[in-house]
Amino acid sequence: MQLKDKVAVITGAASGIGKEIACEYARQGAKVVIADLALDAAGATAGEINQAGGKAIPVAMDVTSEAQVDDGVAAAVEAFGGVDILISNAGIQIIAPVVELSFAHWKKMLAIQLDGAFLTTRACMREMIKGGRGGSVIYMGSVHSHEASPLKSAYVTAKHGLLGLARVVAKEGAKDRIRANVICPGYVRTPLVDKQIPEQAAQLKISEADVVRNVMLRETIDGEFTTTQDVAQTAVWLAAFPTTALSGQSILVSHGWHMQ
Ligand code: NAD
User: Fold this and answer.
1) What pTM was estimated for this model as a whole?
2) Of 30, 94, 118, 255, which is most buried with the most CB atoms under 10 A?
């Protein structure tokens, strides 16, 4: 029970990595707010957690909407009495070379990844400061916060941007014992990745097996995918860390794809 009675707002928690973090946090005693665009799926995740003896509520939240973020965080505070942890995790992937990427897709990616991170940080930090109990802000970066790949200009730009935001939040938050860190996973088999395997195969004119072997996992030390549980365990460790010694960092969980 490393997170007993901590209140965690997790965006994009209806699927993939966010869902696994929500379930693991609940097992560690946290009260979790499943904030997602997909309200039905968020409700299902919250239902699973509550059925297993945990505490969770679903909240409809488009992280690009200032009003929905502020309302969602207010609902979290009303239900659970404050916010101790933010996992800014909601994200999408768009695959296209720069010369074919539409401006609308570029803006959509930056809105979800960066506007969403800013809006949720602002709303949760205000509550953390009010609560006076400190806090932990965790951004879902990627190996693409440190490395570039073709076809992912908007994603790579946004994931690099999260490092900057985390460092500023670490500096501004320290006086209130608010820490900010970035988790940078390698490829994880979630709906986000399953969708891009055939897309990358078509763009690169190679087989789907080659996308997995020679694009996604080529630089790892052992040819293995990172798992949602690997990321969730990292998120527990970061949130449970007791002091501001661990702040402003990015933690790679990628089977050695990127070493820093
Ligand atoms: P996923 O597609 O399984 O889940 C993403 C969730 O975000 C979905 O539930 C979706 O409804 C939600 N979402 C999308 N847009 C939203 C919005 N505007 N507001 C609120 N919720 C929204 O994807 P995933 O693989 O679990 O990815 C989660 C995060 O992890 C993303 O930020 C992604 O970039 C990052 N990441 C994923 C991988 C990977 O290999 N899967 C690797 C590194 C980083």
Assistant:
1) 0.98
2) 30
